[in-house]
Amino acid sequence: MSPSLLSARGISKSFPGVQALQDVSLQLNRGEVLAVVGENGAGKSTLMKILGGVYRPDAGIIEWEGRPVAIGQVDQAQKLGIVLIHQELNLAENLDVAGNMFLGREPTWGGPLGLIRPRLARDAEPILRRLGFDASPRTRVAELSIGQQQLVEIARALSLRSRVIIMDEPTSSLTQRETDRLYDVIRDLKRDGISVLYISHRLKEVETIADRVVVLRDGRNAGELRREEISHEAMVRLMVGRELRQFYRRSRHEATARPVLQLRHVHWQEGKPPISLELRGGEIVGLAGLIGAGRTELAETVFGIRRRVSGEILLDGHAVVVRHPIDAIEAGIYLVPEDRRSQGLVLEQTIRFNLSLASLKDLQRLHLVATRREVALAEQQRRDLNIRCPSIRQTVALLSGGNQQKVVLGKWLSRKPRVLILDEPTRGVDVGAKSEIYALMDQLAQEGVAILMISSDLEEILGMSDRVVVMHEGRLAGELGRGQLSEEAVMRLATGAAA
User: Sheet holding 450-454: strands in order across?
Assistant: First the structure.
């Protein structure tokens, strides 16, 4: 039997205060798509960076075609044929496609006239054609969609004559159409004998594309699934050590009779129909709809980010004026935004800073922040929300996605919300952190908080909502009670069909 193309045995890696990997092993065969899944912090990206030459392992052996190799730098991995495509695309937007593909490897001679760019375009053309790339190699990267940029990254990998391409969360910013195109590209690569290591939190993608799955948990191997064994339930069981049905547990309690929040004929754009809805204390209302339906715009209007053209907002039956987020915050209406990194956190600051940011007014003494009270508040939220970190002095940018989301939530929870708007609360969050966030939402509902949850994840909408309001092209298309909920019913409304 021929050896695996790439294998790692007994890989360990630690960072200050963190054991990222402990005795991890995997094997990748020729022309195989091997998915590596696990919670945030499970060690997936660390392992991929070791295989891609970004990190050196503390212990363990890497073998290429059955022979031990030392991969201590990116160029050493690339010479073997291993190329890592990072989650955050690493392209020079001011250069054209061909320039990006051969950046740092430009020929020193471009023909009789010394013209480099035409030669780069000629060399790029057959690789791009192989990927079904529909733009010119001379197109500036800044003019491309995210999906096209992803193809440029793959084209660059192929220009390096790669035999293993590592894709870290490759679809995190892609539309469904672009994702489907990426699947086709991966299948073509596989037919050509190129192997793919595929990291994703989106387990449905893994079910679609993977030949095998290796699962990591807490920096160790948790198990492996063959193609016929791959299922959402099996992956979750290995990732978190419990059954999927435990995720969406909702406690039985009655919502308040009177609404906490009422929107009466609210709209944010002339020519769009007004929106009216109610939230009661103790209930979770799902807000569903396709991209562009207006869900985020509605949330931003309630929170004061967008100007309200008309209509009124009532809290406990009394009209409130919300012209700015400060007005919403003072009223007890809080928003956890869709993009936590750019809108919910100060990434270069500490966990302590971010957790106390919304409560500085309450922490002041003589116009100075009372340090002990600030530390006590941050430590309390760290414990309550199980934020995994060595210290609250750690920079929040170093946290996993799930722990970053907990910090955003903790910032508001210390202020005792009346209304909590959650815009895609578990996007980019692993299944373990999702479970904790769902449990927190249920606890808040038990305490009487009114929750509006915007989500594109139908499983999440169905699992967590007491009722669901669906938007279509800026208007309310309908409402579904708990007994009416199904994927089909939600999608009929979301696409503009009758309920």
Answer: 333-336, 419-423, 450-454, 284-288, 467-472, 475-481
pLDDT, residue 273, reads 86
pLDDT digits (tens, 9 = 90+) for 283-299: 999 999 877 788 999 99
**C-alpha separations of 244 from 37, 193, 233, 247, 450 in Å:** 15, 35, 6, 6, 26
Does pLDDT of 2 surpass 60?
Answer: no
CATH number of 259-332+417-494: 3.40.50.300
Closest by CA to 26, choosing from 61, 58, 69, 70, is 61
State mean pLDDT over 87-98. Answer: 81
Query: Pairing relation of β-strands 82-85 and 318-320?
Result: unpaired
Q: How confident is the model at residue 173 (pLDDT cuts 50, 70, 90)?
A: low
CA distance linking residue 229 with residue 208, whole number of Å: 13
The owner of tokens 């934020």 is 387
What are the backbone dihedrals phi and psi of residue 355, each rounded to the nearest 5 degrees, phi first? Answer: -65, -30
Residues 281 and 203: their CA atoms lie apart, in Å, by 33
**Mean pLDDT (the chain, rounded):** 87
Give the N- to C-terminal CA distance of the chain in Å, as an integer: 58
pLDDT at 1: 46
pTM here?
0.62
Indicate where the chain has its CATH 3.40.50.300 domain(s): 6-245, 259-332+417-494
CA distance 424 to 453: 7
* pLDDT value at residue 65: 92
**Backbone phi and psi for residue 136, each to the nearest 5 degrees, phi listed first:** -75, 145
Residue 360: per-residue pLDDT: 80
148, 150, 151, 157: CA torsion to nearest 10: 150
3-state SS assignment for residue 262: strand
**Residues near 89 by beta carbon (within 8 Å), at least 6 away in sequence:** 146, 149, 150, 153
Question: Under a CB-based contact definition with an 8 Å cutoff, are residues 51 and 28 in contact?
Answer: no
Report the CATH superfamily, name and number, of domain 6-245: P-loop containing nucleotide triphosphate hydrolases (3.40.50.300)
C-alpha 313 chain-centroid distance: 31
Under DSSP, the state recorded for 404 is: H
Cβ(363)–Cβ(369) below 8 Å: yes
Q: Measure the CA angle with vertex 390, ends 389 and 392; round to 5°.
A: 70
